[in-house]
Design brief:
Elements (H helix, E strand, L loop, with lengths): L5 H12 L3 H20 L4 E3 L3 E8 L2 E4 L6 E4 L2 E8 L1 H8 L1 H14 L3
Amino acid sequence: MATVTKKDLIDRIATDLGQKRTVVKRTLQKFLDHVILELGQGNRLEFRDFGVFEIKSRKPRTAQNPKTLERVDVPARKVVKFKVGRMMQRCLEDPEKGRQMVSSRLEDSDD
């Protein structure tokens, strides 16, 4: 399994769109910044076919240190939950069919 970085995505998108890297980098970073801000405000983000990001609260609990077996209190905290969207789920189940679906979408968006 390969690791794809933000830089890799920026390069691919810039090539696909024929845009300068700096424009794509700024756009992608603004998008990510707004996702962080919205989640920080407790908002739910829904991207059709991709998925849904939402905040969930975890209750405080008592855990155990595996080395010392000492009990440790873990405070309540908020976590980001991601629910996979329809197209992404199909891509995970059948990568070749998913690749075709995404490719056709990319071709359609050129208009």
